[in-house]
């Protein structure tokens, strides 16, 4: 699939990848439907609130150093600023950066702007951002309001770019454009590819782009053993760093849901090879991922040595953890590919995965399979890898954070453990008396040592059973007995 950088707006995921946000069945059924092209989105006849692309776009742009993010929107849409500024402040330590706030401004679109247009307000805000912060680039994120009134953000940003002499990028993340909030990641990466990345001056053979969120640094040490260097993008990178990502020899990603668009764009435009193996969670995934990286960088021998050493190092502890965790029943709720990675980790540790509420599903990625096909036994994405390697997962829901469906499932399945990637959903596990692990640092479970990290953390969490039950005994549920006795998928595909 060709990524069209001529166009100012990113093509949304439901059109580009046929992504869906509603499904109930088993993981294997979902894979079979995806692989045979028979997957269609099942709409909900009732839905609670959900996220929007704007938040996902902002979470990638706002933490780039020496830049300003302007949210061209009513003030309410800037609620994301506080969330991601918190993430920024907490996680800057992982990169040894001074703790400071993000730089973000709202144009504060008001009722009269929806009648007369908000273009002038945006022009003035860009000038103010430049004068106040002297940034190296400005990102302008769109909103439902700016999209509905039809402000020409592309022209305004292009004019400003010419006048100021720095990249000023339009990020097409209007909330109503896409039902998949992950389209927001793609929108920011589209803006970066169009306006920030420069053609390579000199290729850097040891440089590996690592598309990640904001987790801990585990790659510097691992890559050093292969004479490679990680280049963490996009949060916390500088504009100078992003300009040169075209010079890297390969791109890896810790989550294809996050990075598929940027990785594919870099390969298409600048020949930076994307490691297309499923992400390195669990033994087989990690083996495949390192082997693919070794092939691209010509380090096959070093990679085999690293794999052997790491596996030998963790083997006794892994055996011990598997014995302790055998038969424990877990439920997972997380974004698509990261949720699949957590399932792989749990199954590797010997837990039974009794169900999953995964926020959306991409039947394919932007790379159109390629080498990823080989690595996943004929599949094109991470869920196929999990099902082919570890077996099926029952009660597999594609559920875009619909709390009422999650509570119904947890109440019925009653797992020993809930693993959640997002704070807003983890609270439901505790309210039901289920020991719950909130996964903040996505790098925590990555690679060989990550399996051990996860296993040890799960043992700690399982010991919080009494604490969780205590909280549950003091919690009131907003859901009626009627709803809890219904099938969780009652409104999926309904009228
Ligand atoms: S962009 Fe739209 S959906 Fe997103 S926060 Fe603003 S109003 Fe809500």
Classified by CATH, the class of the largest domain is Alpha Beta
CATH architecture of the largest domain: 3-Layer(aba) Sandwich
- The CATH homologous superfamily of the largest domain: Nitrogenase molybdenum iron protein domain
Q: Which range best describes the helical content: under 10%, 10-25%, 25-40%, 40-55%, 55-70% or over 70%?
A: 40-55%
Tally of domains? 3
Give the strand order, joined by hyphens, for the main sheet. 1-12-11-10-13-14
CATH topology of the largest domain: Rossmann fold
Structural class determined from secondary elements: alpha/beta
Total strands: the figure is: 14
Can you count the helices?
22
Distance between the termini: 34 Å
Gyration radius, in Å: 22 Å
Quaternary structure of the protein: single chain
Bound small-molecule species? iron/sulfur cluster
- Gross morphology is globular
Main beta sheet strand tally, sense and closure: 6 strands, mixed
Domain Nitrogenase/oxidoreductase component: 59-462
Protein name: Nitrogenase
Keywords: Oxidoreductase
GO molecular function, one term: nitrogenase activity
């Amino acid at each position: 699939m060709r990524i069209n950088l001529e166009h100012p707006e990113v093509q949304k995921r439901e059109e580009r990848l046929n992504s869906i946000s509603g499904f109930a069945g088993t993981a294997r059924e979902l894979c079979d439907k995806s692989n045979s092209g028979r997957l269609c989105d099942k709409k909900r006849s009732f839905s609670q609130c959900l996220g929007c692309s704007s938040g996902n776009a902002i979470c990638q742009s706002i933490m780039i150093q020496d830049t300003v993010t302007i949210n061209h929107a009513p003030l309410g849409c800037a609620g994301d600023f506080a969330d991601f500024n918190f993430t920024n402040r907490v996680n800057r330590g992982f990169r040894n950066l001074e703790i400071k706030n993000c730089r973000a401004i709202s144009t504060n679109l008001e009722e009269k702007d929806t009648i007369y247009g908000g273009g002038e307000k945006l022009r003035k805000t860009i000038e103010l951002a430049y004068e106040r912060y002297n940034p190296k680039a400005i990102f302008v994120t769109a909103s439902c309001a700016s999209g509905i009134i039809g402000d020409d953000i592309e022209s305004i940003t292009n004019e400003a770019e010419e006048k100021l002499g720095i990249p000023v990028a339009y990020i097409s993340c209007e909330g109503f454009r896409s039902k998949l909030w992950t389209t927001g990641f793609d929108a920011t990466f589209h803006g970066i590819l169009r306006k920030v990345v420069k053609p390579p001056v000199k290729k850097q053979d040891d440089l590996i782009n690592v598309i990640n969120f904001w987790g801990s640094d585990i790659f510097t040490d691992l890559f050093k053993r292969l004479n490679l260097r990680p280049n963490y993008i996009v949060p916390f990178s500088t504009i100078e760093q992003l300009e040169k990502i075209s010079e890297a020899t390969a791109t890896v990603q810790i989550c294809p849901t996050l990075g598929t668009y940027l990785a594919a764009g870099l390969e298409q435009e600048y020949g930076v090879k994307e490691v297309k193996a499923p992400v390195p969670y669990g033994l087989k995934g990690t083996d495949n991922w390192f082997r693919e990286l070794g092939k691209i960088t010509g380090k096959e021998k070093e990679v085999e040595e690293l794999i052997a050493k790491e596996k030998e190092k963790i083997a006794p502890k892994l055996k011990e953890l598997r014995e302790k965790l055998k038969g424990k029943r877990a439920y997972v709720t997380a974004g698509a590919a990261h949720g699949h990675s957590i399932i792989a980790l749990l199954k590797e540790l010997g837990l039974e995965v009794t169900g999953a509420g995964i926020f959306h599903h991409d039947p394919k990625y932007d790379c159109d399979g390629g080498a990823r096909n080989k690595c996943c036994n004929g599949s094109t994405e991470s869920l196929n890898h999990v099902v082919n390697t570890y077996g099926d997962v029952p009660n597999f829901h594609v559920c875009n954070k619909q709390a009422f469906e999650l509570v119904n499932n947890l109440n019925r399945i009653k797992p020993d453990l809930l693993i959640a990637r997002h704070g807003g959903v983890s609270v439901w596990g505790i309210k039901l008396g289920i020991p719950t692990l909130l996964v903040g640092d996505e790098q925590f479970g990555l690679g060989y040592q990550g399996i051990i990290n996860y296993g040890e953390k799960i043992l700690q969490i399982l010991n919080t059973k009494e604490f969780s039950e205590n909280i549950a005994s003091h919690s009131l549920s907003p859901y009626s007995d009627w709803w809890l006795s219904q099938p969780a998928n009652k409104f999926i595909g309904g009228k």
